[in-house]
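Lecture notes, continued. The same structure-token format from the folding unit now serves as the input rather than the output. Read the line below as a description of shape only.
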């Protein structure tokens, strides 16, 4: 079985070119720059066993579709991570105006045996050659040649940090709570619960490029796996905090104690006890008395401010190693980490931040939400998605009223699956002034909404355990 630890671990495809699933890669920038990993070894879970799998070997039966196909190789033996081949699709790269709808290039299977997705999620494994040429990837299931269909937005390319990066195999899980649209006889109610979850005969993987030239995407697998609600019937939430602000201890912790919830606080070590941050004694108190997880964010505040992608590989290795040692010396044994600024791509000298951090921690949390929640176990634990910037100053998903309202992310995780990781920074008694501040009243509304739905609350470390 493909393991999550292989996600990005330089896999060489037998009989084909070298291929890598996204995540840990061989890291080397001089022996003098390396720290010996400190603390217990990381345990990376295997991918959940699929009940149905299309691995795109010979005779797979999928065909190209759409008005923007330049080339489709249905038996691509040059790059793959399963079997002896994958399927590749290259768009025509037609120039479009910003925001204009482009023709789609797709791969589809129509009229196949009906599949039942009750209590199930879909898992995709694919690679994008150049994400700068990509706009969207969508996935559809339906009937009657997709006249009746549900659509997931698998990935949207952003100008900043991207969960899907160029030239790497990635694993994405699509749950019912992640649905983006419905068509034909298929509908969703106000809580975004679908009217139909079984009898799907048609599937389509669709690529919309950015009109900046041809974009090649390789698809290795489409699979059916159990959804989060199969193990957490009322949904699963992790409540996390970045930077260990003092007002989280003063205002947030008592409310979480009231509801019996445990949190994860991601800590900048050299700021503890200074500038309105937790003291070491307070970190021990939330860990030992309230059951919180004291996790890592960075060792030096200066490195946190620069971001790991804004310094050299040696600086990242030094900071992450020092953080791991500081945590161990202070009896904070968490294996969880949050990337400064959520940035996990590459250092200034071109090394994978993700790979360096994985030498010291077994999970890496980003601040990328997109339209998809995590499954359990997460297929890419060094690239956990979360909802950040939760504040009444915000619009959209991060607004507390939207979050707790009908069809918000709590509803989606509760009724339709997904591990929802919430990321707060500050819990204040004053009027929130920016996206880092959530009012105490809004924070309590969110806690009440989680409790009223009967949702299970676990720290990131507990979920991974």
């Amino acid at each position: 079985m493909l393991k999550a630890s292989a996600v990005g671990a330089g896999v060489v495809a037998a009989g084909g070119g070298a291929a890598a699933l996204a995540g840990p890669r061989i890291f080397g920038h001089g022996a003098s720059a390396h720290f010996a990993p400190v603390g217990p070894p990381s345990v990376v879970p295997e991918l959940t066993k699929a009940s149905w799998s299309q691995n795109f070997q010979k005779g797979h039966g999928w065909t190209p579709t759409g008005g923007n196909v330049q080339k489709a190789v249905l038996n691509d033996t040059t790059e793959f991570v399963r079997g002896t081949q994958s399927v590749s699709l290259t768009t025509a790269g037609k120039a479009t105006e910003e925001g204009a709808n482009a023709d789609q290039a797709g791969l589809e299977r129509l009229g196949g045996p009906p599949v039942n997705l009750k209590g199930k999620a879909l898992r995709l494994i694919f690679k994008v050659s150049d994400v700068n040429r990509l706009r969207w990837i969508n996935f559809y299931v339906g009937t009657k040649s997709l006249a009746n269909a549900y659509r997931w937005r698998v990935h949207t390319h952003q100008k900043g940090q991207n969960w899907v990066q160029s030239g790497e195999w990635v694993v994405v899980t699509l749950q019912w709570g992640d649905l983006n649209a419905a068509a034909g006889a298929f509908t969703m109610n106000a809580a975004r619960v679908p009217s139909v979850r079984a009898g799907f005969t048609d599937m389509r993987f669709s690529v919309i490029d950015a009109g900046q030239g041809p974009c090649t995407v390789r698809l290795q697998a489409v699979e059916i796996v159990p959804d989060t609600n199969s193990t957490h019937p009322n949904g699963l939430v992790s409540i996390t905090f970045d930077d260990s602000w003092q007002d989280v201890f003063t205002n947030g912790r008592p409310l979480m104690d009231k509801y019996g919830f445990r949190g994860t606080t991601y800590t900048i070590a050299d700021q503890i006890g200074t500038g309105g941050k937790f003291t070491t004694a307070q970190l021990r108190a939330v860990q030992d008395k309230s059951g919180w997880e004291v996790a890592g964010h960075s060792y030096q505040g200066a490195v946190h401010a620069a971001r790991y992608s804004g310094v050299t590989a040696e600086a990242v290795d030094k900071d992450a190693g020092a953080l791991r040692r500081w945590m161990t010396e202070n009896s904070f044994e968490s294996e969880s980490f949050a990337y400064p600024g959520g940035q996990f791509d590459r250092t200034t000298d071109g090394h994978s931040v993700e790979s360096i951090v994985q030498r010291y921690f077994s999970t890496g949390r980003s601040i990328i939400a997109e339209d998809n929640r995590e499954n359990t176990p997460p297929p890419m634990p060094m690239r956990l998605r979360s909802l950040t910037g939760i504040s009444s100053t915000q619009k959209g998903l991060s607004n507390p009223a939207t979050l707790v309202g009908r069809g918000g992310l709590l509803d989606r995780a509760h009724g339709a699956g997904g591990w929802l990781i919430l990321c707060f920074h500050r819990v204040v008694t004053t009027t929130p002034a920016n996206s880092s501040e959530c009012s105490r009243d809004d924070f309590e509304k969110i806690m009440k909404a989680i409790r009223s739905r009967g949702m299970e609350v676990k720290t990131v470390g507990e979920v991974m355990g």
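Point for the exam: Residues 164 and 456 are 29 Å apart (CA to CA).
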